[in-house]
Amino acid sequence: MSEDASLDRFLDEDDAEADESDSAAAESDARDDPVAVGAESASVDGTESSDGEPGDEEPTDDGGVTPATTTYAWSGEGAACGACGGTVERRWQQDGSLVCADCKEWDRS
């Protein structure tokens, strides 16, 4: 088995130095400007977006963010398509069931 490598080994010397100076400057700015730190924390919790408007997330009953829903499923052994019944490894959500790529109605907007 091969040895794991750090991503830093793949950077050029100039790239590594530039990244270090950018992160140091950002940390310095955050310490110097307490208002900006407070504004960032307000947008992180999902209560306000960066422009002061309420976020797009719909709150749940407990006041949190609505959990993400899956749109795709993979089965290494294969599973039946909800529309045609064929056995496939990859299926997508459509009208409450999982269907194969051939049966999926793709939005071509």
In sequence order, what are the helices and strands, one letter per element? HHEEE
Instruction: Give the DSSP E fraction (strand runs of 2 or more residues).
Output: 15-25%
Helical content stands at 25-40%
- What low-confidence regions span 5 or more consecutive residues with pLDDT below 50? 36-43, 45-49
For the terminal residues, how far apart are their CA atoms? 46 Å
Number of strands: 3
Class by SSE composition = alpha+beta
The dominant shape is: extended
Quickly count the helices: 2
The figure for the number of domains is 2
Q: C-alpha Rg, in Å?
A: 23 Å
Strand order of the largest sheet: 1-2-3
Overview of the molecule:
- This is DUF7573 domain-containing protein.
- It comes from Haloarcula nitratireducens.
- The structure is a single chain.
- This protein is 28% helix and 18% strand.
- With 109 residues, it is an alpha+beta fold.
- The chain has 2 domains: 47 residues, no CATH class; 41 residues, no CATH class.
- It has a 3-stranded antiparallel sheet with strand order 1-2-3, with no helix packed on it.
- A hairpin with a 2-residue loop joins strand 2 and strand 3.
- The two termini are 46 Å apart.
- About 12% of the residues have low confidence.
Task: State the gist of this model.
The protein has 109 residues and is an alpha+beta fold. The chain has two domains: 11-57, no CATH class; 69-109, no CATH class.
